[in-house]
Amino acid sequence: MFKVVHAGLGRDDVRIEADTVLMPDDFQHIARDLIRPVLRVRKVGSIAARPARAGEVVETRWNGKETTNTARAGDWVVVNLTPRREPLRDRAGNLDAYIIAADRFADLYEPTGERNELGAICRARGVVDAIRLPGGFDIAAPWGERQQAPSGYLILSGGEVYGNNAETFAATYEPVRG
């Protein structure tokens, strides 16, 4: 179950909090309850990906800790790249890195045949749905850890619902036209 918290004085500064993993139905309820448009977006930048080591811990940071995830065998460590294929970094120089589960990777990304020092360069395959959350989120992520950001987007990708920091979203997604 989720709750809507008004983070500021205006109706627009809403924050989503959830102690259980959000499901696609929750995503639709949030959009309807908040009277928010669901945005159809696609990733514009590429990623660099390498196989994760089983038990490897990756802390996702964007101007503070967003979440932590522990890799299982077959998972991938991914770093977002800018449209110029440079690693995306926050103000402190931290890489925008995270883990993609083995069973989701091929559905989400395809290799370009190129590599850099961080791994194989891949491009996103599909389109996802997003809801803007100016007040951010503090939710249970699909990988079982907390995910937090002071401002961001709620993403629905396949059957998973997770958060994305507003700054990384702006750097890595664009609206789908038509």
> Strand order of the main beta sheet, please?
15-14-11-3-16
Taken as a percent bin, the fraction of beta residues is over 45%
Shape: globular
The SSE string, one letter per element, is EEHEEEEEEHEEEEEEEHE
Helix content: 10-25%
Overall number of strands: 16
Number of helices: 3
Rounded to the nearest angstrom, the distance between the terminal CA atoms is: 33 Å
CA-based gyration radius: 16 Å
Largest sheet: 5 strands, antiparallel
Features:
mainly beta; globular; 3 helices; single chain; 178 residues; five-stranded antiparallel beta sheet
Element layout with pairings:
Elements: E1 2-6, E2 14-21, H1 24-34, E3 39-43, E4 47-51, E5 57-61, E6 65-70, E7 76-80, E8 97-100, H2 102-108, E9 109-116, E10 119-124, E11 127-133, E12 137-140, E13 146-149, E14 152-157, E15 160-165, H3 166-172, E16 173-175
Parallel strand pairs: 2-12
Antiparallel strand pairs: 1-2, 3-11, 3-16, 4-7, 4-10, 5-6, 7-8, 9-10, 11-14, 12-13, 14-15
Task: Describe this protein's structure.
There is one protein chain. The chain has 178 residues and is mainly β. The chain has 3 helices and 16 strands. Strand 1 and strand 2 form a beta hairpin. The radius of gyration is 16 Å and the shape is globular. The mean pLDDT is 92.
Question: Could you give a short description of this structure?
Answer:
The chain is mostly beta strands and 178 residues long.
